[in-house]
């Protein structure tokens, strides 16, 4: 399919399916590959982002166990670094993987990510402390999670209120 033909097809779909929010889930799943991004509901974008982030996290978690069991130190450290970054930025992962559109849905994704990130940060601190509880490390990791998600939530609120610097 040529680029010109794809544009024409996309325009036709948008023109004839402008009431996409009233279509059934089956119709949306069939049409989704051809619909413009904003035709998908905000809730489904967040749901998709959440599921993809969870799958990615689970795969990385299993990967770090396999790397540790086989003494693949470099791979283990790489995967542990990615897990750490994803833990502190789960809200952003949900937004990016789900391709969340308007600021309102990004804000909702960030809040969801923050709620998920808190217990994961405590678990990460436990892992970094050699499977023992370390209050200072736990509070530090919870603090980093609060800072990363809090800053993003604050910034999105400012954007929605028209106060962008």
Description:
This protein folds into 2 domains: 1-39; 41-160, no CATH class. It has helices at 3-16, 25-31, 42-69, 73-88, 90-98, 103-128, 135-160. The protein has 165 residues and is an all-alpha fold. Helix content is 76%, strand content 0%.
Question: How are the secondary structure elements laid out?
Answer:
Elements: H1 3-16, H2 25-31, H3 42-69, H4 73-88, H5 90-98, H6 103-128, H7 135-160
Helix pairs in contact: 3-4, 3-5, 3-6, 5-6, 6-7
- Strand runs, count: 0
C-alpha geometry: globular
Rg for CA atoms: 20 Å
User: N-to-C SSE series?
Assistant: HHHHHHH
By secondary-structure content and strand pairing, the structural class works out as mainly alpha
Bin the helical content.
over 70%
What's the pLDDT, averaged over the residues?
81
Strand content range: under 5%
Number of domains: 2
Describe the main β-sheet briefly: none
- Spans of at least 5 consecutive residues with low confidence: 16-22, 30-39
Quick structural gist:
This protein has 165 residues and is mainly α. Helices cover 76% and strands 0% of the residues.
Which keywords apply here?
165 residues; mainly alpha; 2 domains; 76% helix; globular
């Amino acid at each position: 399919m040529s680029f010109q033909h794809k544009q024409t097809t996309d325009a036709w779909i948008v023109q004839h399916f402008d009431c996409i929010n009233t279509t059934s889930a089956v119709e949306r799943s069939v049409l989704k590959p051809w619909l413009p991004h904003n035709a998908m509901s905000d809730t489904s974008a967040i749901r998709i982002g959440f599921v993809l982030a969870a799958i990615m996290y689970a795969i990385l978690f299993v990967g770090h166990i396999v790397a540790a069991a086989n003494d693949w130190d470099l791979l283990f450290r790489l995967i542990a670094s990615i897990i750490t970054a994803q833990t502190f930025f789960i809200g952003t992962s949900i937004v990016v993987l789900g391709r969340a559109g308007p600021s309102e849905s990004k804000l909702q994704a960030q809040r969801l990510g923050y709620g998920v990130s808190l217990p994961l940060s405590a678990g990460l601190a436990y892992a970094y402390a050699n499977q023992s509880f370390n209050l200072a490390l736990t509070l530090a990791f919870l603090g980093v999670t609060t800072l990363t998600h809090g800053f993003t939530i604050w910034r999105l609120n400012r954007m929605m209120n028209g106060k962008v610097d």
